[in-house]
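Postdoc handover notes: sequence design on the structure in folder B. Input tokens:
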């Protein structure tokens, strides 16, 4: 098969729709991984993409890493289609495409039946913040991430790039509040708030917990505030009102990890 050069090609239109329309991603249950590093993560995780687009330059001299990646994808029997540079640019959500992208099913990972470490993101509308938080949550040992109504979708291209492959390993689900309540049954529920009455270092994170972090613009909503059994805050310098959502989540999540590691060490 020759190189795809037309933006009217059905697969090209399909990729562009996935990149630009949330409803398309949700209906098709598909997302797009862009760039060598993310597509490499697919291969390492043993997740075969639905199909791959690549430019001829990506398999040429000076691009040994991309060429090895394409060879690995072929060994996995993944359909790989050469596209022209203009088509790759049209399909990409980045300013400087790396010459390879993959379409894959949105991972459907099993959520824990009795979770002990849940992160709930409420009304987080910035996809970059969402993706960075997913990457951090995976590193901190979070067992599942639940997204409330009003939160950007995890398959948003900016969220996917910022998450750096976390989608393949961390269960993420967008749920209504009644389903969220059921999913965290038995957990202590803490809300991160600038004026929280408890310092984040003073909470007991060794128990099963669900931590709610709101978006930067408007914070957590009324439903989240009503659900929380307590509020934790991060002490900051005078005159500073709040932290970036992803940074605030990271500070608290790694305190949870620290307390649990200390408890495990002391019990050994």
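Designed sequence:
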């Amino acid at each position: 098969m020759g190189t795809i050069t037309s933006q009217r090609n059905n697969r090209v239109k399909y990729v562009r729709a996935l990149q630009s329309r949330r409803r398309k991603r949700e209906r098709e249950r598909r997302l797009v991984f862009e760039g060598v590093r993310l597509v490499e993560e697919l291969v390492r995780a043993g997740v075969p993409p639905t199909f791959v687009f690549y430019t001829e330059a990506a398999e040429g001299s000076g691009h040994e890493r991309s060429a090895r990646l394409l060879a690995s994808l072929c060994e996995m029997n993944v359909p790989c289609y050469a596209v022209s540079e203009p088509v790759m640019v049209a399909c990409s959500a980045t300013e400087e495409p790396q010459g390879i992208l993959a379409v894959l099913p949105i991972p459907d990972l099993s959520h824990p039946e009795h979770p002990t470490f849940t992160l709930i993101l409420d009304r987080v509308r910035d996809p970059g913040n969402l993706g960075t938080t997913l990457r951090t949550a995976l590193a901190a040992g979070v067992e599942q991430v639940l997204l409330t109504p009003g939160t950007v979708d995890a398959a948003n291209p900016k969220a996917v790039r910022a998450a750096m492959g976390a989608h393949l390993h961390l269960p993420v689900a967008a749920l209504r509040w009644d389903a969220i309540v059921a999913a965290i049954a038995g957990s202590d529920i803490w809300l991160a708030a600038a004026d929280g009455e408890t310092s984040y270092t003073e909470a007991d994170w060794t128990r099963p917990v669900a931590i709610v972090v709101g978006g930067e613009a408007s914070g957590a909503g009324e439903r989240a505030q009503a659900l929380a059994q307590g509020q934790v805050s991060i002490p900051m310098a005078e005159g500073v009102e709040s932290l970036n959502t992803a940074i605030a989540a990271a500070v608290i999540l790694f305190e949870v990890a620290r307390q649990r590691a200390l408890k495990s060490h002391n019990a050994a």
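Context for whoever picks this up: The mean pLDDT is 95. Don't rerun without checking with the PI first.
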